[in-house]
Amino acid sequence: MYIPFHQKYRPAKFSDLVGQAPIAQTLSNAIKRERVAPAYLFYGPRGCGKTSTARIFAAALNCSNRVNGAEPCGLCFSCTEALKQASLDIIEIDAASNSGVENATKLIEKLHYAPISGKYKVIIIDEVHMLTREAFNSLLKTIEEPPAYAVFILATTELHKVKESVASRCQHFSFKRVNSDTMVQHLSAISKTENIDIKSKALEIIATFSDGCLRDALCMLDQAQSFRAGAITPDDIYELTGKVSKELLQKVYNLVVTNNQTELLTTLRFLAFEGKEPETIVNQFAKFITDQLIAEPDQTNKLMRISDYLLEIQKQLKSTVNPQIWLEVGFLKLLDSTKTSSKVVAVASTPEVTMPVTPLLEIEEAPWKTWKSYDDAIKWGHSKLPAKSITEVSTMWNNLLAVNGKKAVAWVELIRGEMNEQ
Ligand SMILES: [Zn+2]
């Protein structure tokens, strides 16, 4: 039976974890020093190893023959049961589909029985933020006064949605997106093992498109290997993922800034012909513009204006049945805005087209200039989104992916996007 790569290469020990070395180290040390906390909270973006880490930690806790003091041996009764996900001492539930109080009650009942094959009874709750308030409350009592053998591992992609009363009783572990170099190394090693002929540039593109999510990257590699018999090229990856190449994004950008309407429309139609979705084009172009803000700091004003238009196009695309037309209309308006920095004149004769444009004066230019630390950036974000708590805003900051090692510009983009949502 064929096993997909993301399952086949699921890490089984701490040293297999990709891009989460500090976490692997801390958890290994906790086991070696026998300083195991009753509750852990793993948070971070999807597909970066939270569940795998929880399973490895659970297996290691109960392994009767640990390697190097902390790694699960993979061979003892407890480990083999854990690998088959059949261990009675490791209870794993997905709160997304088991969010009710009855599930929490069942879980707590199971905790009344002492572990069978190991020292600990480990409860892994995935997407814990999905639990209902009642479920959280009933769980809270157990987390406050757990049996000595109980270890809770709560995992979430949305830390700000986890009840503070629960979160404050856990040791926190922040999982990071896997960086591009690490991802490429990992994919390259798997390609060698699997005898996949793939250009290193193609691996870099997979790493970029996966946005730090290892699971997505492995799925893409898996698909790519069955896509073509010969060497897999960057173009194959673009075709497979329906994404636009950097070269074409650069071309669109050049046509926008040189105000080349005819050529721009031709290019947008070519992309449609190639099967690229309007939403993908706009999202990728918006990301391209954010990167451009770093490459061309003297063009901040112009780039911010383009960004604002792209946000409007993104919104319009969500609510239309004819996205290609909206894409073209949106881009024509964008061209018009780069020509005149004042109010925008309707380009197409579609009266129902209303694209509210943020007046230029309201755009605070380069707010990061006054920031001295990331605290200032978070405070600025909070001042723009008063409906959110400072903790929520901090979490947004922590989860934000740095562009070329910097976060400030992407942060302003993110906050402005949220402001427009409200
Ligand atoms: Zn073992």
Rg on CA atoms, Å: 25 Å
Low-confidence stretches: 341-363
CATH topology of the largest domain: Rossmann fold
Q: Which CATH C-level class of the largest domain is it?
A: Alpha Beta
**Helical content, roughly?**
40-55%
Major β-sheet, in short? 5 strands, parallel
With strands numbered from the N-terminus, the spatial order across the biggest sheet is: 2-3-4-1-5
Tell me the total number of β-strands: 5
Ends: how far apart?
Answer: 48 Å
- Structural class by secondary-structure content: alpha/beta
How many helical elements?
19
Give the name of the CATH superfamily of the largest domain.
P-loop containing nucleotide triphosphate hydrolases
SS strand fraction: 5-15%
**Can you write the helix and strand succession as a string?**
HHEHHEHEHEHEHHHHHHHHHHHH
- What is the count of distinct domains? 4
Q: Secondary-structure map with pairings?
A:
Layout: H1 5-8, H2 21-32, E1 39-43, H3 50-62, H4 77-83, E2 90-94, H5 101-111, E3 121-126, H6 133-144, E4 150-156, H7 164-167, E5 171-174, H8 180-193, H9 200-210, H10 214-225, H11 234-241, H12 246-257, H13 261-273, H14 278-295, H15 300-318, H16 323-339, H17 374-384, H18 390-399, H19 408-421
Helix pairs in contact: 2-3, 3-4, 5-6, 8-9, 9-10, 9-11, 12-13, 12-14, 13-16, 14-15, 15-16, 17-18, 17-19
Zinc ion binds at residues 63-65, 72-73, 75-76, 78-79.
Report on this model:
By secondary structure, this protein is α/β, with parallel strands linked by helices. It folds into 4 domains: 5-174, 3-Layer(aba) Sandwich (Rossmann fold), CATH 3.40.50.300; 180-241, Helicase, Ruva Protein, domain 3 (Orthogonal Bundle), CATH 1.10.8.60; 243-360, Zinc Finger, Delta Prime, domain 3 (Up-down Bundle), CATH 1.20.272; 364-422, no CATH class. It is built from 19 helices and 5 strands. The chain has helices at residues 5-8, 21-32, 50-62, 77-83, 101-111, 133-144, 164-167, 180-193, 200-210, 214-225, 234-241, 246-257, 261-273, 278-295, 300-318, 323-339, 374-384, 390-399, 408-421, and strands spanning 39-43, 90-94, 121-126, 150-156, 171-174. It has a 5-stranded parallel β-sheet, covered by helices on one side. Helix 8 (180-193) crosses helix 9 (200-210), helix 12 (246-257) packs across helix 14 and helix 17 crosses helix 18 (390-399). The radius of gyration is 25 Å and the shape is globular. Bound molecules: zinc ion.
